[in-house]
Specification:
CATH superfamily: P-loop containing nucleotide triphosphate hydrolases
Order of helices and strands: EHEHHHEHEHHHHEH
Bound molecules: adenosine monophosphate
CATH architecture: 3-Layer(aba) Sandwich
CATH topology: Rossmann fold
Number of helices: 10
Strand order of the largest sheet: 2-3-1-4-5
Helix content: 55-70%
Distance between the termini: 11 Å
Number of strands: 5
Shape: globular
């Protein structure tokens, strides 16, 4: 059972590459951002609770995020899948620790953290561009976009050390064509046993 974390700032291409990896390696794709957007779209209680955080580009509280993640993985696991690709989770050290415990209960663990590296100006450009077509309110406003990057550097980037110390962190150049970046990611996947 593989557990792959796709790591990187907003706009680094995690969503795009996660879909390619999911198809190629038969993985369950888990995007906490998609889970929350779906709850908002369906106007559920969780959706109402998290909307303010997504609109402001702030992180949803850990407890709720961890609960949603666990519920989604358990509800969508299937025997034909080779594992899970986590996209946008974990984003804080407590989330990473919760993921470790969740996997430990299943006698499993994180195999590798693949980190897409893209510079800030490119990220802002990509996110604003995506906002023109995605309909995502958190992409269309430059102030919210810059706030998401700030949140990433303050709360999520420290996770790199958490996984570096476990020798699970691999940096991947996130600039280039989609195919080039996918090829680099595949190279790392093939190194896993
Ligand atoms: P994303 O689609 O991954 O860019 O996530 C969009 C938004 O969903 C983020 O800006 C947060 O408000 C929320 N979100 C997604 N994943 C998480 C997470 N792991 N922890 C907290 N908030 C999250």
């Amino acid at each position: 059972m593989l557990n792959i974390i796709l790591f990187g700032p907003p706009g680094s291409g995690k969503g795009t590459q996660a879909i390619l990896l999911k198809e190629h390696f038969k993985l369950l794709h888990v995007s906490t951002g998609d889970i929350f957007r779906n709850e908002i779209k369906n106007a559920t209680n969780v959706g109402k609770e998290v909307k303010q955080f997504l609109d402001a580009g702030k992180l949803v509280p850990d407890e709720l995020t961890i609960r949603m993640l666990g519920g989604y993985v358990d509800a969508n696991s299937a025997p034909e899948l080779q594992g899970v690709i986590y996209d946008g989770f974990p984003r804080t050290v407590p989330q990473a620790k919760a993921l470790d415990s969740f996997l430990e209960e299943k006698r499993s663990s994180v195999n590798v953290v693949l980190s897409l590296e893209v510079n800030d100006e490119e990220l802002v450009k990509r996110l604003i561009n995506r906002g023109l077509t995605s309909g995502r309110s958190d992409d269309s406003n430059e102030e919210v976009v810059r706030n998401r990057l700030k949140v990433y550097y303050n709360q999520t980037a420290p996770l790199a050390d958490f996984y570096l110390s476990q020798k699970k962190f691999v940096s991947i150049r996130g600039v280039g064509t989609i195919d080039e970046i996918f090829a680099h990611l595949c190279d790392e996947m093939y190194k896993l046993d």
